[in-house]
């Protein structure tokens, strides 16, 4: 939520909960349909769905299949307990995730977090199924190792060596994507009330995880060459956090890279303040191998490196990994067992077959070339609109930009949604989202679509 400036779905949810508390809506009363409520309030159906979801989660209303939504029999005025506040704080992140995971015909998703499907489908996942079945049919019927499929971890050892990070297989734990890796780290280190440092702006899904854990999220402003070191040092002294989540290469959402000088200083501060740096490198395959990683400077002493193949192979495989000190890796593998027992050996065998094939290197090279062209074209497209670009990158999946005449990106996103264009408003990427932001994250692959310009003209 946004402090005093709540999202529209939050306002609708508050209005309905107030009506229930005051007895204007009684137990068993049927609510207007989603369509009727959207028309009456001049908003989209998605906004109403978000409001209804929040009320249902708090036990105030209940869906009845084929009949609609009704005031719950045990409906009460919302209690301002920690569970309710936690859900509210995470809601904006959930909204953006929900929008990004839906595939809607006729909708242009400029807030998309992945490369276009046509960029990835040349990996031809179907070609590798028979190879996986021939070499490991038993993996289709059992749990895998708590660390993950060993041959894939051995390939990741070579991949990390290409980034000048030395990691033995026992230092690598396979996960259900980068998001589970972050979740495992949060569950292991963070207790309610603990301070955790994050890039601000930064990865919105991480903020949701930290809010659900009850962490005290402390933002470190992100400059064009990495985190603000002066603020980082001050926050370390004031809050004494255990963790700092950051993204040193192809930062989401600003497309910035951390400079070598700042990376060295971050590690000096980590040593002085007993801090662990969690480096999210989910976009690694979209950037040059020569790009500087903090983990390469530290060699996993005070760093945890998180990687993923969602952006370069397929998000549907849900294969990610983390690399860290061997003792910590063993502990985190145990955490994974408690959460999910194991990761999918079938998916890991499939990915191992893909990355073992010589075609994969050619695929990532083509992917990067496409990204360079799309980034250059995206810069031109935003320039024609008079947009302010935070940092012009040579190749990045995203551009962080502000459109003239639109100082509140949330309001702009609502208006554009009415014209079937989905934006990723900057407020959602803020650690606290307690104000307005003029910035939006744009996926460079879609900036050339004429529907964007037409929708923007209608909003004006």
From TrEMBL:
Domain annotation HTH gntR-type: ranges: 6-74
InterPro entries from the UniProt entry: Aminotransferase_I/II_large, HTH_trans_reg/aminotransferase, PyrdxlP-dep_Trfase, PyrdxlP-dep_Trfase_major, PyrdxlP-dep_Trfase_small, Tscrpt_reg_HTH_GntR, WH-like_DNA-bd_sf, WH_DNA-bd_sf
GO molecular function, one term: DNA-binding transcription factor activity
Superkingdom of this protein's organism: Bacteria
The entry's keywords: DNA-binding, Pyridoxal phosphate, Transcription, Transcription regulation
Family: In the C-terminal section; belongs to the class-I pyridoxal-phosphate-dependent aminotransferase family.
PANTHER family according to UniProt: HTH-TYPE TRANSCRIPTIONAL REGULATORY PROTEIN GABR, TRANSCRIPTIONAL REGULATORY PROTEIN
Name of the protein: GntR family transcriptional regulator
Organism: Caballeronia humi
């Amino acid at each position: 939520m946004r402090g005093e400036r709540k999202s529209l779905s939050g306002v609708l949810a508050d209005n309905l909960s107030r009506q229930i508390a005051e007895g204007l809506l009684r137990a068993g009363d049927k609510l207007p349909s989603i369509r009727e409520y959207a028309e009456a309030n001049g908003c989209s159906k998605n906004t109403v769905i978000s409001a209804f979801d929040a009320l249902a989660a708090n036990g105030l209303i209940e869906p009845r299949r084929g009949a609609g939504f009704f005031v719950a029999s045990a409906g009460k005025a919302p209690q301002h307990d920690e569970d309710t506040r936690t859900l509210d704080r995470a809601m904006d992140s959930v909204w953006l995730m929900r929008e990004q995971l839906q595939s809607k015909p006729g909708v242009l998703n400029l807030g998309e977090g992945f490369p276009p499907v046509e960029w990835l489908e040349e990996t031809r996942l179907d070609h590798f199924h028979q190879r996986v079945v021939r070499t490991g049919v038993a993996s289709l019927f059992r749990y895998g190792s708590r660390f993950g499929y060993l041959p894939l971890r051995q390939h990741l050892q070579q991949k990390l060596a290409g980034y000048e990070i030395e990691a033995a297989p026992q230092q690598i734990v396979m996960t259900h994507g980068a998001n589970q890796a972050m979740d495992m780290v949060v569950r292991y280190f963070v207790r309610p009330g603990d301070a955790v440092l994050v890039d601000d702006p930064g990865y919105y899904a991480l903020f949701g995880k930290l809010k659900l854990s009850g962490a005290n999220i402390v933002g470190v402003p992100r400059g064009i060459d990495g985190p603000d070191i002066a603020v980082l040092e001050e926050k370390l002294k004031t809050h004494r956090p255990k963790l700092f989540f950051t993204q040193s290469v192809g930062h989401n959402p600003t497309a910035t890279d951390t400079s070598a000088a700042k990376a060295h200083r971050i590690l000096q501060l980590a040593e002085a303040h007993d801090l662990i740096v969690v480096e999210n490198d989910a976009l690694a395959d979209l950037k040059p191998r020569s790009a500087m990683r903090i983990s390469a400077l530290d060699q996993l002493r005070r760093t945890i490196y998180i990687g993923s193949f969602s952006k370069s192979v397929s998000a549907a495989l849900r294969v990610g990994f983390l690399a860290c000190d061997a003792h910590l890796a063993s502990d985190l593998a145990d955490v994974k067992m408690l959460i999910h027992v194991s990761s999918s050996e079938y998916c890991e065998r499939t990915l191992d077959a893909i990355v073992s094939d010589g075609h994969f290197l050619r695929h990532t090279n083509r992917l990067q070339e496409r990204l360079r062209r799309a980034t250059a074209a995206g810069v031109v497209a935003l320039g024609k609109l008079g947009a302010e670009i935070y940092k012009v990158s040579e190749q990045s999946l995203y551009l962080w930009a502000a459109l003239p005449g639109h100082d509140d990106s949330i309001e702009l996103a609502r208006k554009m949604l009415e014209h079937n264009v989905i934006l990723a408003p900057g407020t959602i990427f803020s650690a606290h989202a307690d104000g307005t932001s003029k910035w939006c994250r744009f996926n460079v692959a879609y900036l050339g679509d004429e529907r964007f310009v037409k929708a923007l003209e209608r909003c004006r």
